[in-house]
Please model this.
Amino acid sequence: MARNRTKLRPEQKAGEKENLDRHWRGLFLDTLADTSNVSAAARISGANPSRAYKVRREEPEFARQWAEALLEGYEHLEMETLHRLRFGTGPDDPKFDIANALRLLAAHKETVAREKARQSEASEEDVLASLDAKIQALRDHELGRAAAMNGSEGSDESA
Model:
């Protein structure tokens, strides 16, 4: 038995595409945050990975959301690894290679730190000013320590 198909007008198709486009993006980003795996996120969202990468290249807002999803995924992985380190893996747990998980975390640590710094509210000038202040505090501390040491040596001579 043949099914009757309703023909959509072009404006309806455009709206349908917009909804589908929004739907895959949200599902893609949610899955990316859960798995840290672009291929899995594309498969589950019904998008082709090359389409996802193209949208990321062309749309800065999507690229920002992608980066946030990966940061969230990294945090999930950290928490899962910590949990398994603390409580072990039970007989019902799938095989978990803690050594590789730790290597993966270490490999992505710099990328995550760079991305978090990029997203922070602090400007480059604020960061540099903060570093300059810390360096000056260290210098002041060392000068004070040196002066105290010289003062204690001088008091030994007078005794």
Observations:
- The chain has two domains: 15-120, 123-159.
